[in-house]
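Wait, can you check?
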Amino acid sequence: MGERERWLSVAGRATVEPDGAHDLCARLAPHYWDLDDPARAGDLAEMLAADQVRLVIHPEAVSRYMS
């Protein structure tokens, strides 16, 4: 409440890529989580142990709104 409204819309085709998901998780996790926290380190370990795919959006149109 009281925050400015913002949104982003991306339209285009998407592909399912069988590789790269684990590398992406490992690279992004330290930016968002404190991996010295055992709970977060465990969350990452679970993600890396699971089968994953990447969804890649190939943008054809991008719209944004900021009030």
In short: The chain has a mean pLDDT of 94.
